[in-house]
Design a protein that fits this description.
By secondary structure, the protein is of the alpha/beta class. It has 11 helices and 19 strands. The protein is about 25% helix and about 25% strand.
């Protein structure tokens, strides 16, 4: 099959033939029909996080099941599925306590799921390898979707939507009537805004530098928008929250300046949720005495604390009811042979999500 292979960090991907081994016990093979470009993929492409080359990245995908490994139940060949990077063993403490997104069982991404024709191993990027015509993943990584959900919309549910909406619903557990600040109105931030709306937040304040992103934030449900570089930003947030600050502040951008500012926008007893992913080694500053005196909580949110088999059907239901925007998240669609153009465009910062539409094989 063909895959977009990364041979050098920061360099364009090359479309070439690779070998995908058959699914083993508990695994499924999926023919990918759509895969989105996530900023986490770009981070790996640039070498910001640990990875070995060559590699095939891509983790925001949807397609149809082609083949099942031994022991797989609940899905069948031909089923439409979302393919996520959340690989869960089902046996470790995290899995047993309902936190599969924190599965503690190590996964060797160089185990030979992918290889070059000469036999050399290709890293199974993000445990998914979605920038390819097909992928082999653990059954825990897929969630069925209805046939009438377009594949390019289903792909968005694999990461961007569950990360943003899940940070609000699962991690923060925002209550009806709460006030929410979302810093960063990119792809994940827009979904955090949608999540706050679904949770019944009374006020959703979006903060970003780009006017077009603030316009998008209003489209997705923000009640108020503020420029991140405005003078008196904290004062403006206080003015919108009766002088108290927000109950929840979600940082949906990987900028240290945003993290350093977040707690000043939260109320006493408020919660700061860390969603955006800065490069490894980046540090934020916090004054413990202020955190103690304000009784604020700082919470990390990985993949929106999502259980894909639970959360994907819920989000599909919200889409059916017209309460969740998916089509509006797509900036542009590309062919597989245009993947480098899609990535270059996504680097510009104005993109919500670019999606690769795969040609159906056979």
């Amino acid at each position: 099959m063909k895959a977009a292979v990364c041979h050098a960090f920061g360099a364009p991907l090359t479309l070439e033939e690779v070998v995908l081994r058959p699914p083993g016990h508990g695994e499924v093979r999926v023919a990918i029909e759509a895969v989105a470009i996530c900023h986490s993929d770009i981070g790996y492409l640039d070498g910001l996080w640990a990875s070995r080359l060559p590699a095939v990245y891509g983790h925001e995908a949807a397609g149809r099941v082609v083949e099942l490994g031994a022991g797989v139940q609940g899905i069948a060949p031909g089923d439409a599925v979302v393919v996520s990077m959340i690989r869960a063993c089902g046996q470790c403490r995290a899995c047993r306590t309902g936190k599969p997104y924190l599965c503690a069982t190590p996964y060797d991404r160089g185990n030979g799921v992918l290889s070059l024709p000469d036999g050399s191993v290709v890293e199974h990027g993000l445990a998914t390898g979605g920038f390819a015509e097909e992928c082999v993943v653990h059954a825990s990584q897929v969630a069925p979707i209805p046939d009438d959900l377009p594949m390019e919309l289903g792909a968005l549910l694999a990461c961007g939507v569950i990360t943003g909406a899940g940070a609000v619903i699962n991690t923060a557990k925002v209550e009806p009537g709460a006030t929410v600040v979302v810093i960063g109105a990119g792809g994940v931030g827009l979904n955090a805004i949608q999540g706050a709306r679904l949770a019944g937040a009374a006020r959703v304040i979006a903060i970003d530098l780009a006017p077009e992103k603030l316009d998008a934030a209003r489209e997705f449900g923000a009640t108020d928008v503020l420029r991140a570089d405005m003078k008196g930003l904290r004062r403006a947030v206080m003015g919108l929250t009766d002088g108290l600050g927000a109950d929840y502040v979600l940082v949906a951008v990987g900028a240290i300046a945003a993290y350093n500012q977040a707690s000043s926008l939260a109320c006493k007893g408020g919660t700061v949720v860390m969603v955006g992913m800065p490069p490894s080694g980046a540090r934020m500053e916090i004054e413990p005495v202020i955190a103690a005196a304000t009784a604020q909580t700082l919470k990390g949110s990985f993949m929106g604390a999502s259980v894909v088999q639970r959360d994907v059907p819920y989000l599909v239901a919200m889409w059916r009811q017209g309460r969740l925007k998916l089509e509006e998240l797509i900036t542009a669609r590309y062919r597989f042979d245009q993947i480098n153009d899609a990535i270059a465009d996504a680097r510009q910062g104005h993109v919500r999500r670019n999606v690769i539409i795969m040609e159906k094989r056979g």
